[in-house]
Amino acid sequence: MENIIALGIGNQLMMDDGIGIYLVQELEKLDQSSGIRYIIGESDIDYCIEQIESAAFVIIIDAVCSGKQAGELSLYRLADLHEHHSLDISIHNLHLFQMLYQQRETIKGYLIGVEPHEISFHMGLSQTLEEQWKSILEEAEKMITDLIGKK
Prior knowledge:
alpha/beta, 5-stranded mixed sheet
């Protein structure tokens, strides 16, 4: 089987910025048979790059400020990220997304972005995302299933 990874990035100390990590943790518990490796990359970009470079297909899950409603999910092809200048990708992820763009011919995959409600110093999700947790999780799980099916 191909090396497929779902990589959760972000910072759990910054409220909704940790949504990618929380989703990957929960998706790993729910997934018993897809063969996807679920990896928590947090904001350790060197570790994330190492994991991505060894994968055949990558699904990154992260908080992405794109002007949508809090809790809304968006899907971006990694090869097309440079076209989305309106994405407010945090500074700790900038290096990662620059590397992905430079290697767009060899690294295949997608970014699932979750619109945050609040990013500030505090553990746990904002109340807004906490209230939407079940639907966010279900939508992320469906997106991943669809992506793997299309691959």
